[in-house]
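$ ./design --mode recover --in tokens.txt
reading tokens...
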């Protein structure tokens, strides 16, 4: 047999891949599969979590809308009750209501006059 310039060649003299190269190629493919499998599993898990979470998030949004509407209704009802109570008080005690309003007005006027006449100290 004639000496071939390639250590691993077939009878025609064409080089053949060495055993190490074949093992390396197989290992590269196995590495890719061993890395890709967990990535695929995580992606599948994320998709399942997302699919399960969407109905819960939609239900939460609907519940929040109901709470906001109920809260606004409660505030409106309380304001209407307070308006009715204050109207009844004013009708029942007109002179006292006028005196209270005058006292509050006088106190605010005094406070404003004190604040505007105050000279800055430097």
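writing sequence...
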């Amino acid at each position: 047999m004639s000496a071939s310039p390639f250590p691993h060649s077939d009878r025609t003299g064409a080089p053949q891949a060495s055993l190490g190269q074949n093992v390396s190629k197989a290992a590269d493919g196995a590495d890719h599969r061993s890395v890709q499998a967990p990535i695929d599993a995580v992606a599948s898990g994320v998709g399942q979590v997302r699919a399960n979470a969407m109905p819960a998030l939609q239900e939460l949004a609907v519940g929040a809308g109901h709470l906001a509407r109920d809260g606004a209704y409660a505030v409106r009802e309380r304001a209407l009750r307070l308006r009715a109570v204050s109207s009844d008080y004013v009708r029942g005690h007109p002179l006292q209501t006028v005196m209270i309003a005058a006292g509050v007005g006088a106190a605010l006027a005094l406070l404003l006059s004190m604040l505007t006449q105050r000279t800055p100290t430097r």
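exit 0
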